[in-house]
Amino acid sequence: MRQSFTSRKPAARLLIADDHLLLAEACKAMLEPLYEVVGIVTDGRALVKAAVSLKPDVILLDIGMPHLNGLDAGEQIRHKLPEVKLVFITMNTASDVAAEAFRRGASGYVLKHSAAEELVTAIRKVVQGESYLSPLIARETVTFLLNQGKATPEPKRITRRQSEILQLLAEGMSMKEVANILELKPGTVAFHKYRMMESLGIKSNAQLLEYAIKRQMTSAPS
Question: So what CATH class is 160-214?
Fold first, then answer.
């Protein structure tokens, strides 16, 4: 008697990134029956390293994360791993932020206060090559903003290195601490800081912090 074996396609491999470890662990417990969760990280810089090392199929990531925000981290990862799917899980309901996430390479955008089933649906769709946007955010507005972004001139932007430096400074780190994390000289950090202030027309540290908050790099101080 001939025995036949059917090969089963392995489940998608997920990497979870959220600075709230309890939430990340809960997300892992919910998804493990369906997918292979290869790791959890709690900051943006750790996420980039883990993504390159683990090469997951899908990354679930928050926008507001320490050391490197999710938008910048996601963009870096997509340059290194073009095939990876990014699903943002966030509290941010702003259409312009959702549009920016898709502009940076997102495949999905889910709100944290949505039902758990919505996240499962989003992951299933992006694994199948589709995109997903939470129904609580107006798709027409996001589409308009995306199209507008392609049609209008690019606003003044800082470099990727300047963005990294800005977030760390906005989190309250000194130039020396930033230099240690990024493996730069303090003078190089200072140079980048003043160059970005010059490029953006910013005159004070307070204005620089305000710019970082508006760009979702860090949260407003309480």
Answer: mainly alpha
